[in-house]
Automatic annotation (TrEMBL):
Protein name: Cupin type-2 domain-containing protein
UniProt cross-references to SUPFAM superfamilies, sorted A to Z: RmlC-like cupins
Pfam families for this protein: Cupin_2
Domain Cupin type-2: 41-105
InterPro entries: Cupin_2, QDO-like, RmlC-like_jellyroll, RmlC_Cupin_sf
Residues passing through the membrane, by range: none
Species of the source: Deinococcus roseus
Length: 153
């Protein structure tokens, strides 16, 4: 018998992890999906960015709702607009930055689940943002590898 439950997650529900450049509201975690995927709603402030990195375990899918994100893909830097879907497969370096004049908002789906534990552990350390070397040390246990500062790309 399936132990998962059908339900509605309200707009205000979900653990929110705040940093001064980006907020992630976790809507579904591995506990909710039996490890299948994690779903989060991400708000990235103007100028906010995630440095180049790759996931050894999960694929990421971004669905842009508002704003514009410049995304580092296998084809180089490309701009995503509302309604666009961005796919970052595991093992492939990627990054993004908000190039809008307003905060951007996107859904993120990570498959399989598990990356939420990294965000939850990192949350208390995000204000101010940790150094890249500190971030790299913390991320190793979660199969995430940071490749350098965004400005290096």
């Amino acid at each position: 018998m399936n132990h998962l439950h059908a339900r509605i997650i309200r707009a205000h529900q979900g653990q929110t992890i705040n940093s001064h450049l980006e907020d992630v509201q976790l809507k579904l975690t591995g506990i909710d999906t039996d490890g299948s995927y994690t779903l989060g709603l991400v708000t990235t402030q103007v100028g906010g960015s995630i440095p180049p990195h790759l996931h050894h375990r999960e694929d990421e899918l971004l669905i842009l709702l508002q704003g514009e994100l410049e995304c580092l893909t296998s084809a180089g830097w490309q701009t995503a607009h509302p309604g666009d879907v961005v796919f970052f497969p595991s093992g492939v370096m990627h990054a993004y930055r908000n190039v809008s004049t307003t905060p951007s908002k996107h859904w993120v789906i990570a498959n399989p689940a598990g990356v939420e534990a990294f965000y939850q552990q990192l949350a208390p350390l995000l204000n101010p943002i940790p150094s890249l070397s500190h971030l790299s040390t913390l991320s190793r246990d979660y199969g995430i590898e940071f490749m350098g500062a965004l400005e290096d790309q």
